[in-house]
Specification:
The chain has 65 residues and is mainly alpha-helical. The longest helix is centred in the last third of the chain and has 28 residues, at 36-63. The chain is 83% helix and 0% strand.
Length: 65
């Protein structure tokens, strides 16, 4: 029974810390742009694939003049 008197205030403190962290993240703009980072990763991947393909074609052209 004594453990409950320790765990309930401790859980309230932990929940308060998480709530304050969430409020801080929202106010500092952490959740403003949620769609661009995944799209950026896809764009970077496609750009690296294009450069790899162009490098391979240049190597083939140099090897077969």
């Amino acid at each position: 029974m004594i453990v409950i008197f320790l765990l309930i205030p401790l859980s309230i403190v932990v929940a308060s810390v998480f709530l304050l962290g969430f409020i801080w993240a929202v106010r500092s703009g952490q959740y403003e742009d949620t769609s661009t980072p995944p799209m950026r990763a896809l764009m970077e991947e496609s750009q690296t694939e294009k450069t790899e393909k162009s490098e391979k074609s240049e190597e083939c052209e140099k090897a077969n003049p």
